[in-house]
Amino acid sequence: MRGGMANSQPGSKTEDGMKLVQRKNRTGQTKAIRRASRTPDAALGKAGIGLAVALLASWLGLGHSVSSASTEAAATNTPDTSGMVLIPAGKFWYGCNEKLDGDCDPDEQPGRWIDSPEFWIDRTEVTVEAFHSCAFASVCSTAGLRMPFWKDEERPSWAWACNWGKEGREKHPINCVDWNQARNYCEWAGKRLPSEEEWERAARGTGGWKYPWGNAGYGEASRVANIADETLAQEKPRWPAAEGYDDGFYATAPVGSFPAGSSPEGALDMMGNVWEWTSSWSDANLKYRVARGGSWANGPQLVRASNRYRFNPAYRGETFGFRCASR
Ligand SMILES: [Ca+2]
Ligand SMILES: [Ca+2]
User: In whole angstroms, what is the distance from residue 314 CA to residue 42 CA?
Assistant: First the structure.
């Protein structure tokens, strides 16, 4: 089983994310379901806001007042659908399509037709630039955005992959972001996180495609998504990258870099780049949130429209990001 985090080594059982059920990997090892003990600790609070402002001022080299920024925030709570795509209401195939997908996990089965209401979803993952606007408005906390955190530890060796504050990554997805930070951003934007059902509908259309663009696999289609590819494999030869597929990006790519990977309604990067937090709990105990879509650090087995993964909502992975939805 490949971990959701770049830190996880291929074939190890040390991934921070947890698949919803046990299954065997390609070498016959049984995936372990671990129980994470940490609770979300990055919820927005007064201290977080203060830190956010301080970090932001440092990042910008500016000294804007909080009061004026707060006024700006108050005016920014009506969803702007110009950067969104409309997903029409109707039935769609949800979960594994066994006719064409041999990589399905048990938690994707059984596939079935379900109803979906009309909704809007962001065309792309939320960018560093967009998140910055929320932080500048003193609404979004920037706590920890420069440091991956998972398995109850900070991961400084992967801090380079966190996009916040890195010159030239303004159009990249905000990552190293926990679930609460994602939810707070969407609320500030007058939106919300999508449910995993909505996310899957937006990713694959109605007819049970394996990917947003259809059923052609990586290497068969053109450059369709940023996943673990030949570019990554040049640096990490042991990584479970897609053989024969080169998207040109080692880590995250600017959002919208793969128009050939568009969903039927025009959503981009539903596959890869960063995992996307959803509003859905993965379990009755309300411990884990479901993330979808895989990332730049994952090989083809995990980067499919019906694949599901669960994460401790406190984790801030360099492979985690999000997009928002709205009705
Ligand atoms: Ca890549
Ligand atoms: Ca994505």
Answer: 7
Instruction: Identify the nearest ligand to the CA of 247 by its number.
Output: 1
Longest dimension (CA), the chain: 58
Among the bound ligands, the one closest to the CA of 299: 1
pLDDT, tens digit (0-9, with 9 covering 90-100), for 315-327:
999 999 999 999 8
- Are residues 78 and 190 in contact, defined by beta-carbon separation less than 8 angstroms? yes
User: Any idea which ligand is nearest the CA of 272?
Assistant: 2
CA of 61 to the centre of ligand 2 (A): 31
- CA 67 – ligand 2 centroid, Å: 34
| pLDDT cut 90: percent of the chain above it | 72
What pLDDT, on the 0 to 100 scale, is given for residue 80? Answer: 87
Ligand 2 ion: nearby residues, β-carbon < 5 Å: 269, 273, 293
- Rounded to whole angstroms, the Cα distance separating 163 from 59 reads 12
Tens digits of per-residue pLDDT, 73-122? 444 567 789 999 999 999 999 999 999 999 999 999 999 999 999 999 99
- Give the Å distance between the CA of 120 and the centre of ligand 1: 28
- The verdict on pTM exceeding 0.90 is no
Q: What is the mean pLDDT of residues 271-298?
A: 96
> Ligand 2 center to residue 4 CA distance, Å?
12
Supply φ then ψ for residue 193, to 5 degrees.
-75, 145
Report whether 325 contacts 317 (CB < 8 A): no
Which ligand has the minimum distance to the alpha carbon of residue 296? 1
Residues facing residue 153 across a β-bridge: 150
| Domains along the chain with CATH numbers | 82-327 (3.90.1580.10)
Strands 275-281 and 119-122: unpaired
Contact indicator for 121, 194 with CB cutoff of 8 Å: yes
> Which ligand is nearest to the Cα of residue 125, counting in written order?
2
The answer to whether the CB of 322 falls within 8 A of the CB of 186 is yes
